[in-house]
Amino acid sequence: MKIAKVTFNNFRPYYKDVSVDLNVSGEQNIVLIGGRNGQGKTSFLLGLVWCLYGQNIDKVDDVFKNEVKGNYPRFLNKSLNWESVAEENYEFSVSVLFTNVELSEGIKKDQLLANVEVIRSYNTNDSAAGEKFEILIDGEKAGLIADDIEKANFVNDYLIPIDLAKFVFFDAEKIAEIAALGAKDQASIMDRAFGQVLGLNNYENLIDDLKEYERTIHKNSASADLVIQINSFETAKKNNEAKRIQINDRISSIEEDLAQSRSSLNDTTEQLIKRGDFSVKLDVDDLRKQREILLGRLGEVKAKFNEVVDYIPFAILAPKLQEVVVHLSKEEQQSKNLQQVEVLQEKTKELADKLFNRSPLPETDMDFETKTFYYNKAKSIISELYSDDLENDESLDFTHEFDRSEILHVNAVFELTAQYSKDAFESVFNEYIRLNNDFLEIDKELRKTEGLSQDEFIADLQARKAELEKKIQSLERECGAKEEELIKIDSDNKQSQMKIDNLLEKAKVSKQNEKQLKIVQKYIKAIAEFIVRQKAEKKAVLESTLLTELNRLLDKRDLVNKVDITILDNNLGMDIKLFDSTGRETNPNSDMSKGEQQLYISALLKAILSESIYDLPVFIDTPLGRLDQEHRNNILEHYYPELSEQVIILSTNSEIRSADLGKLEKYISKKYLIENKNKQSRIKLGYFEK
Questions:
Q1: What's the whole-number mean pLDDT along residues 294-322?
Q2: Residue 9 and residue 94: Cα distance in Å, rounded?
Q3: Could you report the per-residue pLDDT of 357-378, keeping only the tens digit for each?
Q4: With contact defined as beta carbons under 8 Å apart, do 39 and 80 qualify?
Q5: Long-range contacts of range 375-380, CB-CB < 8 Å, 24 or more positions apart?
Q6: Whole-number Å distance between alpha carbons of 43 and 676
Q7: If you write DSSP's letter for every residue of 478-543 in order, what string do you get?
Q8: Sequence-ordered list of residues with C-beta below 8 angstroms from that of 307, at least 6 positions apart, any chain
Q9: N or C: which end of the chain has fewer CB within 10 A?
């Protein structure tokens, strides 16, 4: 299946009929559409998505949701070309022609491949009539596809499923935001996409239908009392769904009001700036609070400065003062050593005297000369033994002759100086200067703002701005509260369904119905096991393909060395983990740049689409926005040519440059350029070619 042609008629910048042939063939699978910013590239994608999904456009991606801004009728009225309005032509449309669409026998019996054209139009002068949505199969209306719900189901079943649209019509730069999602949200998105490309969503829908049939059998067999209880919970669920509609309507209204209020706030802010009020982001109260905070900090720093100022001379002379302290320490040690030597000499003399000259003495006493010899030897030995306990004296050129109190005073001054080093003094001084400058600046800004507020017109604008800011905050709070209500509704409905299921289990089923139940349960189990088995079998292929693509696209070869995908239980999704060459997990959100995140999601998209049962075209906007030249080369040479059998790239001349065309030339089937002149966009042949 491919898209052969797209036609815009008075849609946004496209005045009257603007068609583009997108047919590709064989290896030439790429259509390159150039356009500078603001020429109509985004409107090109927007028109395609609107044509296929209508009011569900906001479910495709945030890029399209931001265009709708919660107000679909307003979006439609804004989508009419302005030149068309001037000519009083109020209808616009977009049509998309698909070729080789594979249909089921129930849709077209004589042949399974057909051309399908989807046409969506709207008349802003006849909003009561609503949109017109047509599907033509080989040029004829399909009788079996009557209402808009059936048409939407046809698009989802045979053309491009809405869950896959995010990956078919995407902004390559913004799709990298998927990498920044939480693990749970990312797992859910990827699992839904994987289920869609494998066609497993049809089996999951079948399980839901079988479970509903199972409940019907139980309910038909239930007693009157059980039915009353079941009906009460079903009524509660229906009431909740009615509340959900009301809440969603209110959220849409809030989002519309927010968009208008933010637009008004921007306009008011611009007016204030034009009139010289450059402080629009800081109101008077904020400025006064900042001024008070700075005054307090200035007082603290000033007190600290006064505390240390007396020690500034000592801080300047700190090296010299340290020398004095060291010298005094040596003097003190030398004095202690001298005292210890004198004591040691006295003790040695006393010991020798007691040893040789006091009773009792041996009968054969030694003569005087021998006593004298041993006396002196004993003193020498004792001196040697205890000399190690004395610290070595260091010769000093002079001594200060300070008494003990003077030494203590010098040491105290040095300790205080150590607390307030020269750097510390400079730090305190610099902090004081900085805070004082900040204070003077805020004070000046405050006086200016208070002066401007005396101008009545500016005062009105400031009051309007404050009012809008207050309104926006209130709307944001209400929107948050409504979203919490939706979460509670989901929780209540789950509890109600659990209670319904418990009551249904109590119903006594007839033997005939019991046989039917067993058959239904058997089918549910078999289909569930088939889904799990299919995902498990494809898991290894997906891991291998993703790793191969990452190694081809990323310049950091060691960033991803292994891919591990886990299919989570209870339909919680698909968890993808990446590991580098050391075995450490690579987190795309923290370990990759924005450009690398874009490549990661692009590689994952390609890996998923490679397993698709659908032959899907892919449209890419902003293809190389965040990438450096090396990664651009990888994308151009290895990615786009193999991404799909039909790839439509919308690019500026700064993304895919003339110098880059050589890498794509042999794969390009057609080249176009979107040009906007006099507020009218046209599509002509050639890509930024003179």
A1: 65
A2: 6
A3: 666 666 666 676 777 777 777 7
A4: no
A5: 378/348, 378/351, 378/352, 379/345, 379/348, 379/349, 379/352
A6: 12
A7: HHHHHHHHHHHHHHHHHHHHHHHHHHHHHS---HHHHHHHHHHHHHHHHHHHHHHHHHHHHHHHHH
A8: none
A9: C
Q: Which residue has the tokens 């000519």?
A: 87
Structure tokens at 516: 């039917």
User: Other C-beta atoms within 10 Å of 645: how many?
Assistant: 16
Report the candidate in 5, 110, 100 with the shortest Cα–Cα distance to residue 51: 5
Task: Judge contact between 457 and 330, C-beta under 8 A.
Answer: no
Buried b or exposed e, range 219-234, using 16+ CB within 10 angstroms: bebbeeebbebbeebe
475 is written with which tokens? 């709307």
- Residue pair 618/648 in contact (Cβ under 8 Å)? The answer is yes
In DSSP notation, 571-610 reads T--EEEEEE-TTSPEE-HHHHS-HHHHHHHHHHHHHHHHT
Whole-number average pLDDT of the chain: 81
Query: What is the reported pLDDT for 90?
Result: 92
| CB distance 187 to 575 below 8 Å | yes
190 burial (CB, 10 Å; 0-12 / 13-18 / 19+) is buried
**Residue 215 CB-half CA count within 13 A:** 17
Nearest to 638 by CA among 554, 562, 564: 554
Angle at 70 between CA 69 and CA 71, to 5 degrees: 95
CA dist., res. 144 & res. 106, Å (int): 8
Q: What angle do CA 277, 283, 285 make, to 5 degrees?
A: 145
Task: Report how far residue 638's alpha carbon sits from residue 550's, in angstroms, rounded to the nearest whole number.
Answer: 11
The number of beta carbons lying within 10 Å of the beta carbon of residue 373 is 12
Q: Sort 688 into a burial class: Cβ within 10 Å, 0-12 / 13-18 / 19+.
A: middle
SS3 content of the chain, % helix, strand, coil (to 5): 60, 15, 25
- Closest C-alpha to 92, from 108, 78, 113: 78
**For the chain, what is the radius of gyration of the CA atoms?**
43
Helix (H) or strand (E) holding 260: helix 224-274
The arithmetic mean of pLDDT across residues 505-524, rounded, is: 87
Query: Locate tokens 């100022």: which residue?
Result: 309
Closest CA to 131 of 106, 148, 108, 150: 148
Long-range contacts at 457-464 (CB < 8 A, ≥ 24 apart) = 457/275, 458/272, 458/275, 458/277, 461/268, 461/271, 461/272, 461/275, 461/277, 462/272, 462/277, 462/280, 462/283, 464/268
Cis-peptide into 360, omega within 30 deg: yes
Q: How many CA atoms lie within 13 A of 589 on its CB side?
A: 10
In sequence order, what are the beta bridge partners of 5?
A: 21, 97
Condensed to tens digits (0 to 9), the pLDDT of residues 78-96 reads 999 988 888 889 999 999 9
626 in Cβ contact with 595 (< 8 Å):
yes
Question: Do the beta carbons of residue 504 and residue 229 sit within 8 Å?
Answer: no
Q: How many CA atoms lie within 13 A of 467 on its CB side?
A: 8
Q: Give the 3-state DSSP-derived string for 144-207, with helices as H, strands as E and coil as C.
A: CCCCHHHHHHHHHHHHCCHHHHHHHEEECCHHHHHHHCCHHHHHHHHHHHHHHHCCHHHHHHHH
Element containing residue 287 per DSSP (H, E): helix 284-309
Which of the 8 DSSP states describes residue 58?
Answer: G
Cα separation, 242 vs 583, whole angstroms: 51
12-28 tens-digit pLDDT: 999 999 999 999 988 89
Contact (Cβ atoms closer than 8 angstroms) between residue 669 and residue 681: no
DSSP 72-106: HHHHHHHTB-HHHHHTT--EEEEEEEEEEEE--TT
